[in-house]
Structures are given as C-alpha cells and as structure tokens.
Amino acid sequence: MDLLTFARGPGMQWAATIFVIGVIWRLVGIALLRGKKTLSAPRNEASWKGLRLIGLRSWPRKEVLGGTAVGEVMGYTFHIGFFVALFFGMPHILFFEDVFKGLLGVNFHRIFGFDWPSLPGGVIYFFSAVSVAALLAVLVHRIADPVKRMISNFDDYFSWFVTIAPLVTGMLCYGHFGAPYQTLLATHLFSVELLLIWFPFGKLMHAFTIFAARSLQGMAFERKGASL
Fold it and tell me: Residues 92, 86: contact at Cβ < 8 Å?
C-alpha cells in the first residue's frame, strides 16, 4: 500500500473516527459540567435576551478596538478564505458528496434539489492565498506583541500549524509544484488528517463551542442585570 492509498483509505477513516469521537466526548464532557447554583434573585427575567451577546461579541467594543483591530481583521479574513476554499473547491465538494452519499445513501442533489455550487480553481487558490497571508500576519502579530507572546502556549502554535498546513499543501497540489502530484496529494491529505485528529483536543474546538459559550455568558449577564 503506497502513501496516497493509505491517506485516502485507512488514514482518513481513522482521522475522521478520532475527530467524531473526540468532538462528541468534549461536548458531552462540557454538558456534564456542574456549575455553581445561583442563589440570588434574577434582576432580569428575560434571560434569553443574553443571546444578543453572540452578535455583540463578534466584534470588539470600540474602547479596545485600537489594540485588537489587526487580530480581528486578520481573523475574519482567514475564516472567510478558509470557508470558501473548504466548501466551494471542486475536489472538496466531490469528497463531501461522497461522504454525504455514504452516510445517507442518496446524493446531495436528490435531497436538496440542486447541485452543490463550486468556484473556479483560480478563485479557490486566491482565497487560500489570502487565508495563508492572514495566518502569517496573525503569527507575526502574536510573536511581536509582548502580551500575546507571554500568554501563548504550545496549543496556540500547533493549532496554527495544523490549520495553515492544509491550505499550503492544497495550493501546492493545485500548482503541481515541488513534487509529483501523487506525493503532493498524499501530503495534503495527511495534513488534513492531522488537523482532524488534533481538532477535538486543542483550541480549534472553539468552532463548536464559541456561540454556545457566548450565549450562556450573555444570559448570565442579563440575569445579573449587567450591561452587555
């Protein structure tokens, strides 16, 4: 069995299994956490209004924007570029449709009535390059800023690495640059598998928890009558 066959078969299966089990394990663990019982009477009964915090905290307050603007802009730039490259590149669409059909037994078009749209390869390459540039800017900013450098740990840097690796190897695949295509594709798949394996155990898990955490925090603030 060569590297590409392993990456396409057992490697991807194991990585996907670890990803799914790891995410479920983390979410169940969070759900089972016991919080402190609140004994004080709520100042605001409409605690559901705390859901506003999801939107309010998606961009920093103007009081701190001057110190966080670079990170915020680069963060949004990376996420948008990564999202476009992941979900609108034709090879990725074919992969997701195969997974979709394998899980449900029917194709995407039959259920939703339309085909999964794709973008030209050059457009995907552009968005990937933008994401890579944003991630490099984020890394430089983290290292250059004394406070961020002090509070950063292995998780921060390794999560950055496993995030940028699929983008870079995907761009190399598209350009057929640096090695035979089979080798480039195997490297790209291995980088994706590394991302899947690490995802549940590092800070990348925030993709599944960020909105729930913000809403719970907002509801807690609303209950106490604090300003959002």
Answer: yes
Tell me the domain boundaries of the chain: 47-60+68-224
Return the amino acid letter for 167: L
Among candidate residues 129, 92, 206, the one with its CA nearest the CA of residue 100: 92
Within a 13 Å sphere around the CA of 55, how many CA atoms are in the beta-carbon half?
Answer: 4
d(CA 54, CA 48): 12
Q: What share of the chain is helix, strand, coil (3-state, %, to 5)?
A: 80, 0, 20
Residue pLDDT tens, the chain, 228 long: 688 899 988 999 999 999 999 999 999 988 887 767 766 666 666 556 666 666 666 676 676 666 677 777 888 899 999 999 999 999 999 888 887 777 767 777 677 777 788 999 999 999 999 999 999 999 998 999 898 899 999 999 999 999 999 999 999 999 888 889 999 999 999 999 999 999 999 999 988 888 777 777 777 777 666 665
Q: How many C-beta neighbours within 10 Å does residue 23 have?
A: 17
Q: How far apart are CA 92 and CA 220, in angstroms?
A: 40
CA 165, 166, 170, 176 torsion-angle sign: positive
With a threshold of 0.90, does the pTM exceed it?
Answer: no
